[in-house]
Design goal:
Elements: H1 6-21, E1 23-24, E2 32-33, E3 38-40, H2 43-48, E4 72-74, H3 83-101, E5 107-110, E6 114-117, E7 132-135, H4 141-152, E8 156-161, H5 165-178, E9 182-186, H6 192-206, E10 211-214, H7 229-257, E11 261-266, H8 279-299, E12 304-311, E13 316-317, E14 320-321, H9 323-336, H10 340-350, H11 359-370, E15 380-383
Helix pairs in contact: 1-3, 1-6, 1-7, 4-5, 4-11, 6-7, 7-8
């Protein structure tokens, strides 16, 4: 096998190994305790992984510590092997190792590919310790609230958005919260290869993904009679096709990992309660929402839960302002004769609880699903302060 074939093959095998190394629990809500899986794919590591005799070597490759329990060595996997053949081979190797050593291996040497090893576990008192989340369209108000909330619960977070200075700065801000538990991954959700490459990068960094938050979306303001078809298609590409491509890649990854998982779709109150002049956004987000519901039907058999969060207007979270409201706000302010501050007050006063909805409120709903507080899939949590026209509840 040529060296340039290794990353793609490793990206498909690593989640299988991570799923097999997850420890079963007694909880029906969280049946597996995941591990973080680091990849060492240097020439030195690949040479080491070539033979079980290397377990007795005095020096181990950089990044792999020698312990009382030796690494597990898995012989080369055939290039044309099917997924279930690969899973069966690795599962048998892990089962045999566990029977001999009374514990699963903390390092798996894949001949010709790499060494995968489990570093020290994160603080187990945090509910999302050793879990990995990927958030699309992260570099904004709602995305910042979600990423910060996940990090505070112990999660590793891959914040994804279009490449550029905005994402780089966003990553630097997350780094202040959780250091090496957050990374920035450039992803264009309208490009299947970009999504696949982004997932592969997270797999290379932490071994796999447990939670995906589909948050990427754009808006426009136009009455139906005035709507430009190309502008509508742009929203459809991001809000519908982007959600579909992300769901597709997530389903592929989580079923490959075979340890369950959570998908949380950031919907909107405009699905049950659309607004005049906001038809393109309302219609495309309704399609996104429906894709989430269908995914809940298709993925439940794999222990994968898919739920929706439907917020009303979120203007900012910390220093991050909403990109959606940067688009929508001027029209709304002009129509009502309000400035930016008064517009936020208008939206606060229109809900029953008279509360300004924030990115952290949305994050709390995401965490409700991510921490599996109830056995639910295919449901929606409104985060709107109480809007009677956005019922049913």
């Amino acid at each position: 096998m040529q060296r340039n074939e290794q990353p793609a093959k490793l990206a498909n095998i690593t989640p299988i190994v991570r799923g097999l190394l997850a420890e079963p629990t007694d909880s029906p809500d969280t049946p597996f305790a995941p591990v973080i899986l680091k990849t060492i794919a240097t020439e030195e590591a690949i040479d080491f992984a070539a033979s079980p005799e290397k377990a007795d070597a005095a020096d181990y490759p950089l990044g792999l510590a020698k312990t009382d329990t030796p690494p597990l060595f898995v012989p080369a996997i055939e290039p044309d092997a099917h997924t279930e053949q690969i899973r069966g081979k690795i599962a048998k190797a892990i089962a045999d190792f566990t029977a001999r050593h009374s514990a699963k291996p903390s390092a798996v040497c894949l001949e010709g590919l790499a060494i995968l090893h489990v570093p020290a576990r994160d603080n187990p008192s945090l509910p999302l310790a050793n879990k990995v989340a990927l958030v699309t369209g992260a570099a904004g108000a709602i995305g910042y609230g979600i990423c910060a909330g996940l990090l505070e619960k112990g999660c590793r977070v891959a914040a994804t958005d279009l490449p550029g200075q905005k994402l780089d700065q966003f990553a630097a801000d997350l780094d202040k919260i959780a250091g090496n538990r957050a990374i920035a991954v450039p992803i264009d959700v309208t490009d299947h290869k970009s999504i696949a490459d982004g997932f592969d990068r997270v797999v290379a960094n932490w071994g796999g993904i447990d939670i995906v938050v589909i948050n990427a979306g754009i808006a426009m303001v136009a009455k139906l009679k005035d709507m430009d078809l190309e502008q509508f298609r742009k929203l459809e590409t991001v809000n519908v096709e982007g959600a579909l491509l992300t769901l597709k890649q997530t389903a592929k990854h989580l079923t490959l990992q075979a340890a369950g998982g959570d998908i949380i779709v950031i919907s909107t109150k405009n699905v049950p309660a659309p607004g005049a002049g906001f038809g393109a956004y309302s219609a495309t987000k309704a399609a996104c929402h429906q894709l989430g519901r269908i995914a809940s039907l298709e993925l439940a058999q794999f222990g994968i839960r898919v739920n929706m969060v439907a917020p009303d207007a979120v203007f900012a979270e910390g220093k991050y302002k909403s990109g959606l409201w940067a688009t929508v706000g001027p029209d709304r302010m002009k129509a009502r004769g309000l400035d930016e501050e008064a517009l936020a007050e208008y939206y606060r006063n229109r809900n029953l609880l008279k509360i300004q909805i924030t990115g952290r409120h949305v994050a709390n709903a995401v965490l409700f699903f991510a921490t599996r507080q109830v056995p639910a899939t295919g449901i929606t949590i409104p985060v709107d302060g109480g809007l009677p026209d956005a019922t049913p509840r």
